[in-house]
Amino acid sequence: MIPFENSWPYELIQQDVYVHECPFCSESNVLLPLKKKDIPGIQQGAKKLLVFPCCHNKITIVDADRDYLLASQPIRNRR
Predict the structure, then answer these.
(1) Which of 8, 34, 68, 76 could form a disulfide with 17 if both were Cys (CB 3.0 to 4.6 A apart)?
(2) Is 40 helix (H, G, I), strand (E, B) or coil?
(3) Do residues 19 and 7 make contact, with C-beta atoms less than 8 angstroms apart?
(4) pLDDT in tens, 19-37
(5) Half-sphere exposure of 17 toward its Cβ, with a 13 Å CA cutoff?
(6) What is the H or E stretch that residue 54 is in?
(7) Nearest CA to 26 among 6, 52, 47?
């Protein structure tokens, strides 16, 4: 079972990947340094270091589905 605390929702808008809120600093509507073309590779097992541009915190993305990114560590309830 996938741990819910390691997941974070994302949204695709054209070729860009956004999150509604940064899990670290709570910045709204953050454009991630990922593209739509990166998602299939992550789903097939490629790990991706994700640095949030708003606060420069880092997580490793280990999986994704159509709605959520899965990190290697808990990212929910950090506040």
Answers:
(1) 34
(2) helix
(3) no
(4) 999 999 999 999 999 999 9
(5) 23
(6) none
(7) 52
